[in-house]
Amino acid sequence: MLCNPEKYPFLANIQSPEDLRALPQSSLEDVVSELREFLIDSTSQCGGHFAAGLGTVELTVALHYLFNTPEDKIVWDVGHQAYPHKVLTGRKEALISIRQTDGLHPFPSRYESEFDAFGVGHSSTSISAALGMAIVAKAKGDERRFAAVIGDGAMTAGMAFEALNHAADLDANLTVILNDNDMSISENVGGLNNYLAKVLSGKFYSSIKEGGKKVLQNMPTISEWAHRVEEHMKGMVLPGTLFEELGFNYIGPIDGHNLPTLLTTIANIKALKGPQLLHVVTRKGKGFEPAEKDPIAYHAVPVFNPRDTQLPKSKKKLTYSNIFGQWLCDMAKSDERLMGITPAMREGSDLVAFSRAFPERYFDVGIAEQHAVTLSAGMACEGAKPVCAIYGTFLQRGYDQLVHDVALQNLDVLFAIDRGGLVGGDGATHHGAFDLSYLRCIPNMVIMTPSDESECRLMLSTGFYHDGPAAVRYPRGTGVGAEVGHSLDTLAIGKAKLRREGKKTALLVFGSLLNTAAAVAEEIDATLVDMRFVKPLDVEMIITLAKSHQQFVTIEENAIAGGAGSAVNELLCQQNLLVNTINLGLPDRFIEHGEPSDLLSRCGLDKKGILQAIKVFS
């Protein structure tokens, strides 16, 4: 039993928030202590998102104690804050399975629990979703409460402010809780964050307020004037003015680790009607000193020993992200036009070295993918060569800008698309399952899929020097270990590479499944082609192979619908070539989380699955 009653006497007896609400308020500090210790103990054994959840323990306990969940709704944003929520809502014994095959979902999921009011993976959605729920409740005359907990940099996205602006007109019973921990995954950036940091780093406002009260408490004739001065100063130095002008009743900032203050404040807010905004200040990694000191490193962790002061070091094999990071620095040295842009993914996309070596050419725009894309377009208009480093799943959020602002104007923007294909534990919200499909239909795009690390570097240079928009789409993690130097050589655009000549069957592979396909080709004596380019296709190669082979098998780690295989089908139809063609890729469903090898097997993209498909459809 993971939650041992001897070690966790309160937590072991909490199977749902109803059990929590049955406790006297005097016991909640003990619940908080046990919950934080349980998170450290369990996550150290299974890995997963770590520091953010440690920072929301008190807030989670207070919300479930005072809100009548699941009738009242708590919408979490960003979802990795929600591990304490999962523990208190009947999933503590399963927490050790989180992010693993058939285990707990990494984020809140409506499929998993009635307490997960809204599914989340991408950020900045909570206010819109909770507002939608509150509107319907109001229309029904329903007095239930709805809370959106937004933090970890999610307030930097324009979508959050669109929702705030709309909520002000509706007078719905919506409470927005700004979990201000001064972090996203990397450090927060931008004017709003800087403003909050300046206020909270000093004691200017609090000293004025408390000192003024002491001086004037015995002078009733001046008390009203003092109150007005206090409110004026508050408007000058606190962000309440911003939110109040949007139509919210602003409360805070308050200490998010002071449980009595949280309980009193949230209880008071529950009695208020209309939109409320509670500003809570927390510390990411709270209660675990190494995570408090380095919340970036402890944002998501592997299995580790909580008694050690450092996380275990990973093996030194280079990842595709590392290859990109090295190339970016090398190209920046060679070409001063290069600008590097990321939407809050400096560590994940490996722009750390670049940010330090070329700070004036590095731009972290925060969690604002739409802005990242159009910012890149603007740079290109002035002769720069922007490289927008972004995950495939996050580029979906900037799709209109990719079409309208970049491709339509045929601007020189290189998209380094990380996490192409199945990413593992983060699941459906983070798989790069659709990027080849949604990119392929856009005019002017050049789309490349490297089969190994060396090819990735060649393609990055190719896309950088290409006149017009280009994308290099590469997977998470390591490749086959191909040797990579510091060359800035390029490829001929639209040219595939014949890797093996065989008989009857030709395997046309787009991307990193080439190694698996090579094993298949050896077993059935098939021709193997590293297609390299999804757009433009190597038309000459495909026509030649179609005339000499009885069967094509296209292989990609992308949705079959509209993907690279579909491009081959279209070309064969255009050329009036009749070839028995099998398209292998991701099936028409959302793929859940799990070990990448397990997921590929379930999708029929391992050696066994490919061989079986060829046997069945031949």
Q: What features would you describe in this structure?
A:
This protein has about 625 residues and is of the alpha/beta class. A 7-stranded mixed β-sheet has the order 9-8-10-11-13-12-17, with helices on both faces. It has a 5-stranded parallel β-sheet with strand order 2-3-4-6-5, with helices on both faces. The model is unreliable at about 190-225 and about 230-235 (pLDDT under 50).
Note the topology:
Blueprint: H1 17-21, H2 28-46, E1 48-49, H3 51-54, H4 57-66, E2 73-77, H5 83-91, H6 126-139, E3 146-151, H7 158-167, E4 174-180, H8 191-201, H9 204-216, H10 220-237, H11 240-245, E5 249-255, H12 259-270, E6 276-281, H13 289-293, E7 300-301, H14 320-334, E8 338-342, H15 352-357, E9 362-364, H16 369-381, E10 385-391, H17 392-395, H18 399-407, E11 414-418, H19 435-440, E12 446-448, H20 453-465, E13 470-473, E14 497-500, E15 505-510, H21 514-524, E16 527-530, E17 533-535, H22 539-548, E18 551-559, H23 564-574, E19 580-586, H24 596-602, H25 607-617
Parallel strand pairs: 2-3, 3-4, 4-6, 5-6, 8-9, 8-10, 10-11, 11-13, 12-13, 15-16, 15-18, 18-19
Antiparallel strand pairs: 1-7, 12-17, 14-16
